[in-house]
Amino acid sequence: MSRKRIGPLYAVTDPHWIPEDRFLEVVEQALRGGVDVLQLREKNKPKDFVIERGRQLLALCQRYGVPLIVNDHPEIAKAIGADGVHVGKDDPPVTEARALLGPDAIIGASAYGDVDLAVRLQEEGADYVAFGAVFPSPTKPEEPVVPMEVFRQARKILKIPIVAIGGITLENLPRLMEEGRPDAVAVISAIFGQPDPEQAARALKKVLQKYLEKP
Fold first, then answer.
1. pTM for this structure?
2. The Cα angle at residue 91 between residues 5 and 56, in degrees rounded to 5
3. 53, 98, 110, 189: which is the annotated catalytic residue?
C-alpha cells in the first residue's frame, strides 16, 4: 500500500446528480455521511468556475479532514490548492502531474481494465489506480465492464491502493467486495443520486467497513 492511503469511500461529484443551487449543501451531506475522499469532476464548465468551486469545496473538505482530488487537470488542482489530481488516458501523464504538484500530492490514475497499464502507472509514481467500469455505469454507459479477475490479478502485483469505479450501488457492493476486494470504491449516483446523500454514504460505508475489516 502507498503511504497515501485512499478510501474506502471515494465520492465523485457530478452536476447531473447535484442541483446547482444546493451543490455545497449536498456535498456536505455526503461528507457528514462518512465520505473519505472527494473528487471534483466538472467536464464542461469554464476553468475559472471550476477553480472557484474547487476552492469552496476545499474549505468544506478541510473541515471534515477529507482530501480533495480534482479530475483531469493538474493545473486546476494547483490553482485550487487541492490535495491531488486524478488523470486518465487523455490527460497529462502521472509524471507531469507529479512535477507540477510536488511529492506530497495524491496522484491517481485510471487503468481501465489493464493490469499492465496499472503497473506502469505505479512505476511512474501514481499513488493509486482505478479500474472500471466494474458494473454498467449510468455516468459512462459506453465503458466496457471490467471482469473481477482483473482485481484479483492486480492485488497480487500492485503495492498501491486499488479503487473500483463504475456502476457501483449499495446492492452490488457486497459482490464487488467479495469477488474483487478493492481498497476503495468510487461512486457518483450511489450517493448523489439518492434522496438522502448522508444516509446513502453511511450505508455504503457500513458495507465497506464490514469487508475491509476482514484479514
1. 0.95
2. 60
3. 110
